[in-house]
Amino acid sequence: MEQRFTFDGVAGLYGDARPTYPESVFDDIAAFSGLGSKDAILEIGCGTGQATQDFAHRGFSILALEPGKELIGIARKKLGGFPDIHFAETTFEAWPGEPETFKLVMAAQSFHWVAPEVRFAKTAEQLAPGGTLAIFGNVPMPPASPLAAEFACLYSRYAPSLSGPPAEAWYLPDGPFAKLLGESKYFEPATHRSYPWSRTHNAASYTDLLRTLSRYRLLPDDRREALLAAIAEVIAAYGGVLELRYETHLYMAKRRRESRPAASHRAGTAFR
Question: Model's pTM, two decimal places?
Answer without folding.
Answer: 0.90
